[in-house]
Amino acid sequence: MSKASHTTSKSLLTAEHLTWCTDGNVILDDINLAVNHQSFTGILGPNGAGKSSLLRCLYRFVKPEQGVVRFDNQDIWQLHANDYAKHVAVVLQEAPSHFNLTVYDVVALGLIPHKGLFSTANKSDEEKIAQAITQVGLTHKVQQSFEHLSGGEKQRALIARAIVQSPKLLLMDEPTSHLDVRYQIQIMELVKSLGITVIASFHDLNLASAMCDNLMVLNQGKLVVQGTPQEVITAKMLSDVFGVCAHVEQHPQHNVPHISYYYGYKQDDTHSGDEHA
Ligand SMILES: Nc1ncnc2c1ncn2[C@@H]1O[C@H](COP(=O)(O)OP(=O)(O)OP(=O)(O)O)[C@@H](O)[C@H]1O
């Protein structure tokens, strides 16, 4: 279990001593992290731990009080906003309002950082948009109003928009929160297959374990554990950070940690039966 990160030339994104406060409270407390090119990083942690706040600092929505975030070795606050937007796509928990826009229109918005607001899509752009819509399984909804999609369909449309943007870095805040189990797996495998760098927050720890190369666990604004799923997903971490009792074993298909939660346990039962603890 590693508690420190090491910045290397393989890092696309780094944060050093990142601290963000609001209303007199420290929300992110001296975070250090390094995310390698083409890796898939999961951010875990209990409600209120600071996952969304960290993502907001990484996509330049809020400016930290202290510390620096670097993208390709450049301080993100020294970059022109549009230059950063060309390389970084964001999929948030709450779908933005896109009144009167069809699914096609919303997915096409992914072109704006590259082409500007008023340019029209060419043939290759149109093919890219159509392919992304197919990849997320929304071909039958292409002319439907975005506002009338279900929560999961909106999430998939926004992931298609991110695919069209062709970013180097994709940041996602609980990207599977509205997806049924088939689309949770399918969409995460699609995102993984893009070969880009991904950072996503998860509440589904088994999904994160199966999909991510690296995991970072936040607790009360601090980055308390980081490493591979094997290093991070242990009964001790689940007890210490989430306050739950669980058994961790290897997933039968691909040997990553797989959690079974115990219900109605007494505190003394924690850590029972887990060789990873
Ligand atoms: N703009 C803000 N003003 C005041 N408090 C904030 C603000 N943004 C975040 N917080 C507080 O910071 C803490 C972390 O919030 P954040 O949304 O980052 O947590 P999270 O780990 O994403 O939680 P969840 O799993 O519930 O989505 C919370 O206590 C929240 O109330």
UniProtKB/TrEMBL annotation:
SMART domains per the UniProt record, alphabetical: AAA (SM00382)
Domain ABC transporter: residue ranges: 13-245
SUPFAM superfamilies: P-loop containing nucleoside triphosphate hydrolases (SSF52540)
GO molecular function, one term: ATP hydrolysis activity
Domain of life: Bacteria
One matching Pfam family: ABC_tran
Family, similarity comment: Belongs to the ABC transporter superfamily.
Protein name: ABC transporter ATP-binding protein
Entry's transmembrane regions: none
The organism's taxonomic lineage, starting at the top: Bacteria, Pseudomonadati, Pseudomonadota, Gammaproteobacteria, Alteromonadales
Keywords attached to this entry: ATP-binding, Nucleotide-binding, Transport
Organism: Litorilituus lipolyticus
